[in-house]
Amino acid sequence: MNTRAAWQRNLKIILALCLFMSVLSGCGAPSVKDTYPLESVNGSGNATSYVYRAADKTVPEVAKELANSRTPEQMSPESTERMFLVYSNEWYHLQQDPKKPSDTLIEVDTKQYVQQNYSSSFLQGYLVASLLDDLFDTMRGGSYRGYTSRDVYKPPAGQYHAPTKSEKKAIPPITVDRSGSVIRRGGTGSAVGSGGSIFDRGGGDQSSPSRGTINRNKGGSIFDSPRKSITKPKTRIGSGKISRRGRR
């Protein structure tokens, strides 16, 4: 009975640890900016919009991925053209790229950006009215309908532009598909272990990479001093004295 009770107790502890680790993994799930490359930026202050590209992924695939990483407060019905994921301070507008239908554009807007730019009537086709009533209670909004239609429905906050160097530096490097290659936004990747290094910025001759070596001199020391011979002292049996070799 004692053995069975101990086994049941250990099983409960293991299950509790598994649950705890699953919660931690969910809390530490990667965000959009840590997973996809930044493509375009608009807005300033608290009203900002960032557009990322998910290559070779459909809108429902990206929506499911994001929802599994972080549960949204609201999510629009599944659609291959566009979907919305609403969080407390951010709105994710997923759109199929008209110029490259195999890709999904992830537009991450702050709540203030949505208030100032989006068309309330446009959002009514995707989200519940109560959410929109609270959002546009004191703001009239604009005629904006998303990044893919920015040329027709221009956002009042200004034009989108390619991210500057400072905007790229503000976002850390990303690893694509956990392949071990490190890619900086706007740059090219260098596969670790393929002749390059994550610390190598491509300034040297890749055909003959430099290697660090330690050269010993004739004395055999890395500090350029002759190596001294070290011998252990010996004790004369019965004399009670210690003497070194070479001395009497």
Automatic annotation (TrEMBL):
Protein name in the entry: DUF4247 domain-containing protein
Disordered as annotated region, ranges: 179-248
Biased composition annotated in UniProt, kind: Gly residues: 186-196
Origin superkingdom: Bacteria
Keywords: Signal
InterPro entries, per database record: DUF4247 (IPR025341)
Pfam families: DUF4247 (PF14042)
PROSITE patterns named among the record's database cross-references: PROKAR_LIPOPROTEIN (PS51257)
Signal peptide bounds: 1-28
Biased composition (Polar residues): 206-218
Organism encoding this protein: Paenibacillus terreus
